[in-house]
Structure formats: C-alpha cells, structure tokens
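Hey Z.,

So I finally got round to the zinc ion thing we talked about over coffee. Here's the setup:
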Amino acid sequence: MSTCKRCNKPLKTPKSIDEGYGPVCKRKHEEAEAEFLKRQVTIDEELEYQERMRA
Ligand SMILES: [Zn+2]
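And the result:
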C-alpha cells in the first residue's frame, strides 16, 4: 500500500498515490517548495547585486 511521503498515512486516491502525497501534504509540500524557490531567487539577486557593487 502506498503511503504519504510526508506523514506516512495511507493514500486513498490514485492521484495521491501517483503524487506520493495526500491532498493536504501535497499543498504543504508545494508551499515549502515555492518558499524555497523564492529564497533561491532572492539569493541569486543578492549575489548579482554584490557582483555589480564589486565592478
Ligand atoms: Zn500526508
């Protein structure tokens, strides 16, 4: 039986099983990922800014 990668509860729908997360955990996972990507962009912008200041 497939379980959620985040909370280890059994997954009921084929969609959840396919995604590996329950609906709630899927949303939380995506939010965390979006937050992470947002931070990545911020770091890139910060480096670019520092690069420009050095030149
Ligand atoms: Zn879960």
